[in-house]
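Entry type: protein chain
Record version: 2
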Amino acid sequence: MLKLEIVTPERRVVETEAESVTVPTASGEAGILPNHAPLVSALRPGVLSYTLRGTTEKFAIAGGFVEVNHDKVSVLAGSAEAADEVDTAKARIDREAAEKALTAASAQPVEETEALRDQLDAANARLQLSAGGR
């Protein structure tokens, strides 16, 4: 069993046990099971999920870091929202604003638009979660 903790600057979102955790790392999704090797990784905006007794819970997160050590998974995220916490109208507005800003910045180097792409990914994750998707 894993001990999972999800913390944002505003609050402790989750402190529970989990059989498995999946996080959106900078290099792709990472599945974490008990006895996982120690790990520290940056997180991308996306959907974090964990399973306990056959039930899967999901959160839209906006980047941050994950540390795995001795069956403890610590997630420090910029924000984390469960599906019932997502303001769908605001997420749509955020997505449209990020899309417009990316279009306007299309001539800039990719490195300079990373923050805008992260905003778009975060809005898409919130919308995907609120719609019941993964």
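Comment: Residues 2-82 form a domain with the ATP Synthase; domain 1 fold (CATH 2.60.15.10).
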